[in-house]
Amino acid sequence: MIIKRVGGLAAVISLCAALDVVWADPAQPTAANGSVAAGSNDTSSGARPRENITKPQNITKQRDGSLLIAGRSLRCGGTRNVLDPHLPNLGLAAPGVVVFNPRQLNRWPDTVRLFVFHHECGHHHVGGDELGADCWAVKQGVRQGWLGRDSLTQVCRSFGNGPATDSHPAGAARCASLNRCFATAMAALAKEKARGTTTEAKAEPPDTGAPKLLQGPTLKRSGMRPSFDVK
Ligand SMILES: [Zn+2]
Predict the structure, then answer these.
(1) I want to staple 220 with a disulfide (CB 3.0 to 4.6 A). Which of 5, 27, 91, 167 is the partner?
(2) Per-residue pLDDT band at 147 (split at 50, 70, 90)
(3) Alpha carbon of 87 to ligand 1 centroid (Å)
(4) How far is the CA of 22 from the centre of ligand 1 (A)?
(5) For residues 222 and 151, what is the distance between their CA atoms, to the nearest angstrom?
(6) Residue of higher predicted confidence among 158 and 122
(7) How many whole angstroms from 231 Cα to the centroid of ligand 1?
(8) Cα 212 to middle of ligand 1, angstroms
(9) pTM of the entire structure?
(10) What is the distance in A from the centroid of ligand 1 to the CA of 63?
(11) pLDDT of 8-32, one tens digit each?
(12) 133 Cα: distance to centroid of ligand 1 (angstroms)
């Protein structure tokens, strides 16, 4: 999700509480017909994602300000990492910050956590385009080696089967886009490898001085499922 500046982080977060949420509850990883009622914010059912056979380490913010997710120290360029256990979504991007709910994020497998981080970071590169942020995250995942074909399925599953809304593509459309981006990123990587020009992948910092999130999309509707992908 992204959100426009509304006068400080506290305001950003409190505004966010009123926003829609379209991320699947990990308690229902494969609900074929998406039977979660609109308005449900319940994430406390206790069930865990199937992938959590070995429980991943909880995400933490380190002293230097980076986030430790799946053994990786993550920063999104010059933006500030914030953990907020009261955030009603998995994450959001706002001018100067990326914010995550550690409790909700910890319910998902490592790959989904990494994807959420990079999706929000992606908003600092591509602006409010949700599919663009997804694609940016996929590209990082392929280049950094944490996203493969199997884990792509986990990410897709985490989208749930929600229908399209005014502000969001349907889960199926996001998955289709995800797959296209993955194929493109894999092909690009293979080409680079063939040329022997592969460089150590790392997230490009956002353009300094040219924030793309000063103007975010407006709220269209509210109340679905916990999500980082709200706006
Ligand atoms: Zn988003």
Answers:
(1) 167
(2) very high
(3) 15
(4) 10
(5) 29
(6) 122
(7) 7
(8) 13
(9) 0.69
(10) 27
(11) 444 443 333 323 334 666 654 333 3
(12) 6
Backbone angles phi and psi of 124, in degrees to 5: -75, -10
Q: Which residue has the tokens 């269209």?
A: 220
Q: What's the gap in Å between 130 CA and the centre of ligand 1?
A: 5
Burial class (CB in 10 A: 0-12, 13-18, 19+), 64: exposed
CA distance 157 to 142: 18
**36 or 73: whose pLDDT is higher?**
73
Q: How remote is the CA of residue 207 from the centroid of ligand 1, in Å?
A: 18
CA of 129 to the centre of ligand 1 (A): 7
Over range 166-172, report the average pLDDT.
82
- Pull the structure tokens for residue 194: 């063939």
Ligand 1 centroid – CA 179 distance (Å)? 17
Residues 6+ apart with CB under 8 A from 154: 49, 51, 109, 111, 112
- 223 near 23, Cβ under 8 Å? no
Cβ partners under 8 Å of residue 91, min gap 6: 1, 98, 99, 100, 101, 105, 116, 117, 119, 120, 228
Q: How far is the CA of 187 from the centre of ligand 1 (A)?
A: 25
CB 108 within 8 A of CB 49: yes
Distance 112 CA to ligand 1 centre (A): 14
Chain centroid to CA 131: 11
